[in-house]
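Final report, results section. Input specification for complex C-07:
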Amino acid sequence: MPPKGSKSKKPADEGTVKVDKKKEDPQPSAAETAEAPKEEKKPASSRGGWGRKKKLATDSANGEETGEPKAKIKVKSSISESFADIDFSARAKTPDGRESNFKIASWNVNGLRAWLEKDGVSYIKAENPDVMCIQETKCNVSLIPAEAEVDGYTSHWLSGDAEGYSGVGIYYKTKPIKITDGIGIEKHDNEGRVITAEYEKFYLVNVYVPNSGRDLPRLDYRTKEWDVDFRKYLKSLDEKKPVVLCGDLNVAHHEIDLRNPKGNKRTAGFTIEERESFTATLREGFIDSFRYLYPHTENAFTFWTFMMNARSKNAGWRLDYFVLSERLKENLCDSIIRSKVMGSDHCPIVLELAI
Amino acid sequence: MPPKGSKSKKPADEGTVKVDKKKEDPQPSAAETAEAPKEEKKPASSRGGWGRKKKLATDSANGEETGEPKAKIKVKSSISESFADIDFSARAKTPDGRESNFKIASWNVNGLRAWLEKDGVSYIKAENPDVMCIQETKCNVSLIPAEAEVDGYTSHWLSGDAEGYSGVGIYYKTKPIKITDGIGIEKHDNEGRVITAEYEKFYLVNVYVPNSGRDLPRLDYRTKEWDVDFRKYLKSLDEKKPVVLCGDLNVAHHEIDLRNPKGNKRTAGFTIEERESFTATLREGFIDSFRYLYPHTENAFTFWTFMMNARSKNAGWRLDYFVLSERLKENLCDSIIRSKVMGSDHCPIVLELAI
DNA sequence: CCTTGTATG
DNA sequence: CATAAAAGG
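Structure output:
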């Protein structure tokens, strides 16, 4: 299993892992102590590019953590006022009138640790989903702060080889039958992008799809390698059980899905290659749940660049999705964009199912 | 002249330079525009270590700036309350009773741009020195923000080759006879550490002495190369006119000059090598003006590490000095440590002369 | 604009 | 603990 995952539980359960609180002693200052802990001397240019090295040994057989330094998170501001007005209770029903009994939320948090400092977990408590899917933790599994734990949920984290890059996680109330890290293809699984939770009636796939990059340096990798293999993976799951795919798909499908389609035809996330690739995936028997329910709703976005006050002008993109196996249409109650919830350059999205 | 300097004047004067205000247009977002400004593609590991490259062409013959992007400084907090109580007027006199008529201040600001955001210039206005010496600008000359200008002063900045590293500057009311960048030795002058202002009665040398580093990797360079050559430089000036040397000398001379001498005998700034090297410089005919006036004053520090709340415990170091040619003793009114002034990990120091 | 690791102090 | 630049988004 190439990527490194870790499990940490709050409710008493078999395999429970206690997260060590770090002791209070701060690092001694070099200016205030004689014997600084000797670090190996590195020549100025020994970094070897960017984000390659891992600092810490992680879990061994029984999932116990061996990592040493752990960031101490202090909540510096709270995003909770941004959703004080929101009614989080489900109202919509399935076509045949059944009420939602399973709620899944998904959020690209743009850095788990910064998000924790903004009291991001307050959203989880308010939304109270059965499963919360997180993308872009930018945090090595061994460095996930203890403050990331949420009462009533078990969390499972995944990170890749590059420090501070990518990374996904899930919180769940009900233990899945199985949790799988990655898609079983080594060349894709070293970036910490996919967690699959198998439930009785469906697979839940949490994904952070690779960004094609500013000058599209990774467009070919994204559309010709990743998308192709990930599509196969989804198909293989779908042959066994229905699939709920959620996360940051890093594509705005149609012109309606971003504010400025004309100006972004060669921008990552709206290239014709990425759009057609997403179309190809849907053709394998999946639906874009939001667009299925709201085919003509404009200005429904889930991402706004931090620049140029894009969010205040709602100059955004719909990059986050719940994609469902077509046969889950009959279980679909609602697909919601929580556009007012602050704390990241993405907002959360929510799926209500009657399952 | 190896280091790059620049002059910018506020009062009308020959050679006056107007600093271009940048236009309002922010950079277009890659996510919001089609044609992002093409930057040359760089392979992931082409950095060549750290801080080598210069981004911008700087001034030419007449000191005109050609640099393009300039940081827009917004004052985010003000340090002025930290010195609301201070009486900045001079009281002390020379041994023969003459009053001060020339005030020099010196401050390691730990990043000019961050210091500007804290309204560091408010200190200059309050102290109102004839010359203000600044160390550790960490700012390329071409990137000095327009907000660094102060009414009534002309400023002169110097930076080295490495971006965001070292750098010094001076503000003056009265134009010096001559301003010299560096000490005329190429191997030292690429780090932007010395500005010499020649006045009628003395040379003023503003210095940021190289730090020996955490594991003392630069101790030999510091004591056997820099200190040796810099000492010669001071001596050569002293043969012509008295010298006022000020700045961050990165050494605490004696045990009285830091809180924890026992624990720091192999810490940069208190090694025996650095201390003896400073002694050797003083033996060439200079005095440590503060210690000359206050030989037994304890707990007089100018630097406190940001870590461990060192400043609140006054666990500091005296690293900043006014060193004078011995024959300036008769002109010395006072040498003051402004220990309450916040805004950096160093505090300002002030020299009062009757000249 | 914002977060991240790294270098430096 | 704080500043900075670079890379990624």
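Confidence is low (pLDDT under 50) at residues 9-68 of chain B. Residues 30-31, 44, 47, 50-51, 110-111, 113-114, 136, 138-139, 163-165, 305-310, 344-345 of chain B lie near DNA strand D (CB under 10 Å from a C1'). This concludes the modelling results for the funded period.
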